[in-house]
């Protein structure tokens, strides 16, 4: 609801779905909450999910670690959509292991000893584990300042998250395509990890779909 | 003057024996020298005989005195115990009076408030102070019961069995007027008559037979004998029979006692008193009437107590019946807990629970658990109906189940972090509202921006977060709404939902055709005055009212409608200008509470439709409202980052807690009380949920 002078960015109960979060954008410099980065990222994505450049363009005043962290949070949140769709299709009977290509079998690291979970379990556990890690007070106590020792954790989360993408691409292509059309998630992810190096390039095995990505690509 | 009989005997024996010089000490004062005719003819045998005679008499008298002394000592002990019991009784009655007075004052206040819409000034309405807990917490209670067990054992060792305790507790009850005295008294009396002679005989026998060196036994035995006249014959008989265990090694004269003795076993400490009492009473019954009362649970005695059934049996059974009934026979002694239970069992539970809750609410609430795992704001929060668990619904499209007993050590020592037990994934849009199902159904409902309502079957609190995926967790999906579902309420197996498409729907989620009714505001009575309603204003919040026969729905334009769920018509229209964010109905009074964007919280009378009170509650819009299950406290959360606890009687804020950070302009989105345990929770736009104790 917008007044003349003061804009209240709230979703009041009773708001229609199309009006959800429909308020004027706030420039990053004017955001004074601790969750400013998240707000900014979400705002940009809402504006146009396909405009990767704008989404991933980091404001100058910001620390790169924080930027990466917040984006990773956003990815994990949006991957929920993929998990929901996979829940219906990816059954333990059909995909008994987490694989992408036939080369590797990925073990789920969420257990005490790495376990060979079916694909759907791997997906869920990885997302849950990522949620715990990214929200844990031990590694990420603050949202405006990331400890250097915790940056390495981001890499391992990214690797595991990428496996979810690759499994969906190779085994549940239709779901992958539908989601990608809507949210451009994988493309954005790939762009993020190449622009701000988080994981080695060799891991990115999925073929690029268009040429918009500037950084070097590697294909298996 | 005549010197005491000793001298007479002396003089008599002097006739028999010759004079002995040693006796002169005795006969120094004798004036019986005037009987020279009975000239002293002392003889050794005579003297010896005399001495023996005297000695025997002395011994007899000494034993008599010692018996008397023991008897008096026992009597003193008994009286002291009784006095102490009376003291406790008196204290409890006084406490009960205070509680009743307080309750009466509260009721008066409520009545007055409801009748006149204002507060009744009656000075200090404080709950009675708690010197010793009337409702001890479970830990204390177990210790207390252990202490009682020990005391029981000691008492048994000295012969003070449970039958005596039964009898005493029965007397107490008689005093309290809580039992059917007549039948019991008549039982007592019949019993008395029948037992009197036998007991006399047996008691005296006991006394004679006692080994004088063993004080305790004598005590109990003589206590049995001494109280004959007191009218406490039942006790005495109980005491008598209780002493059988000490007389196993001594020979018995009475065959009946033999019988009983053989049958009676020594009381094991762990044995339930009911059984012990049953045995003893069995034997008692056999003495009087040769009926064998069934040796079932003590409860069965209740039915079996007709004629001749012993009052003690009924005491045992009634204590079990009126107490918590968990087989804990500790209730039979004169304990505070028992009396509290006796009193409370006659009254509605409210005072019981109110007492406990008052205790817990009198302190301040401190942040204890922080629930971190959501990626985006937590829109709704609800506690599990019984366990220390809760469910949160978030804008990151997921719900999470948390078990408060599984904590992760956190950096800050003051709080504990909790990791989720389970993540519910199925919504494709932010989840906006949440409702817990009925207590035993282990289900919860969620409504989202995508317009769907989903039923979830909760995994047990012991589940592992990294278990394999179980598709059974996902229940039915209700898709009839066409726009975002903003509010859910669940009661009595039914679910009500309010959606931005303008409708309120009623569901029976487990039925094959879940949708029961659709309610629209146009169906209601036309507005009394003022401009016509804008076309179908969206409902913002709803709650069941009046034992789920009505639903209160608050709309975005500030109006509040009360629908009758049977007819589907709106029966009452209340309103104000400021849009409401939340509506809650009071658990016991016909009152509705609404939270508004204009920082106010308003109280409405559901019968008359008048706004009974409005107060500025926060510095910014009020978004979360919760009422505690007893209807005494109100919890409110606001976008000003504070949670406030209000006393509903005085409408004053008793505590303010600052929590959560702002995202955009939103801060706290929901608050909740636990229905049973002392937990409150707040859900924030920063993705955290906090639990306070």
Automatic annotation (TrEMBL), chain A:
InterPro entries according to UniProt: MOB_kinase_act_fam (IPR005301), MOB_kinase_act_sf (IPR036703)
Oxidoreductase is among the record's keywords: no
Lineage top rank: taxon: Eukaryota
Family matches, as Pfam families: Mob1_phocein
Keyword set, alphabetical order: Metal-binding, Zinc
Positions bound to Zn(2+): 90, 95, 167, 172
Xref: SMART domains: Mob1_phocein
Protein name: Preimplantation protein
Species whose genome carries this gene: Bombyx mori
From TrEMBL, chain B:
Entries under Gene3D superfamilies matching the protein: 1.20.5.300, YVTN repeat-like/Quinoprotein amine dehydrogenase
Domain of life of the native organism: Eukaryota
GO function term, MF aspect, one: calmodulin binding
One Pfam family, short name: Striatin
UniProt GO cellular component terms: cytoplasm
Coiled-coil ranges per UniProt: 69-110
Region Disordered, residue ranges: 1-24, 122-142, 300-331
WD repeats: 371-405, 424-458, 478-507, 615-656
InterPro entries per UniProt: Striatin_N, WD40/YVTN_repeat-like_dom_sf, WD40_PAC1, WD40_repeat_CS, WD40_repeat_dom_sf, WD40_rpt, WD_repeat_striatin
Start and end residues of each Striatin N-terminal domain: 44-165
Position of the signal peptide: none
Biased composition (Low complexity): 308-321
Keyword field: Calmodulin-binding, Coiled coil, Cytoplasm, Phosphoprotein, Repeat, WD repeat
Keyword Cell cycle: no
Location(s) in or outside the cell: Cytoplasm
Similarity comment: Belongs to the WD repeat striatin family.
Protein name: Striatin N-terminal domain-containing protein
Organism: Bombyx mori
